[in-house]
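Fig. S4 source data, part A: sequence.
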Amino acid sequence: MSQEIRIERKSLERFVTDVFMKLGLSREEASDSAEILVAADARGIASHGVARLWRYENGIRKGIMSGSVIPTVLRETPISLVLDANGAMGMYLSKQTMGKVIEKAKTTGAAFASIRNSNHYGIAGYYSEMAARNDMVGICMTNTAALGVPTFGRMAMFGTNPIAVSVPGHNEHLFTLDMSTTAVTRGKIEVYEREGKTLPDGWAVDTKGLVTGNAGQLLEDMLYQRGGGLIPLGGAGEIFGGHKGYGLAVMVDIMTAITSGGVFGKSVMDSAATSARVCHFFGAIRLDVFRDPEELKTDMDRLLNELNNTELAEGSQRVYYAGQKEHEAEKLSARIGVPLSQKVVDQLRSIGERAHIEFPKAM
């Protein structure tokens, strides 16, 4: 197991911001992108955090993604917005777009947006929580490069295709379901490959459609579309509901790519240099569309407290609700620093050396 190193959050954000600015992003683009990447690590979601900075470095240097790009408005109504990102930075554009969706929803009660031709946008829950913190139900989805294998198949036909939904309670109580529609994300496979660990059974299959534990070989096979990939949420076959995860993954492709006229399914492909161009979906619905917001949030508090206080299974110590572990990890990171593995720290130091930016010291 790699040693865990804690870096003060603001120092890590400044480092990532400075790297992005050296790569040509504006301060606002760099700052927003850094904030969203670091937020993943602060919440314990290492698969979507600063370990991905090298992909942005490669993508920007190769011109596959870039800053200061003006998206094309394809269609707009009082309750909707459809954009072509034109290869813009996914995190910055997504934050701006969810902000616009929230402003529309303040007037109309609900609003939605889809984006095509974008890039990796970090953790989906970041954007759904933007709406929740404005007394709204927040919804966010993205498709990804084809990595998931359909029920009874052996070729990757859809992405990890995450879904996030956030609903607020009082006193910072926040339900955030942020999940991939495959058993795990590719980022988690990358973590296992970095750590030299064998994959658990039930995460992925090889080119023959058989369960595999070889993270490195799986990543290579998925990159070159040789076959094999991640199993849908629920597992292989139908016995444990794998067909439900498969259906959810395809639904995300529909909501993100079909609505925006973007690329979907097996046509969404990564390269060795960077992630594929992808599509996103954002939604915000005012709580008062349904009922008095204070009453709704009071019931949310009750629901979440009931879940926390339910009787425990033998040998278990605690029951969580969706998002609770991540929010508690974020509070811990604020006190003792953001956790990074030694390998990620070494990688960031190398990026910093190329950009002539010093990596911050550990706490």
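Fig. S4 source data, part B ends here. The chain has one domain: 4-292+324-355.
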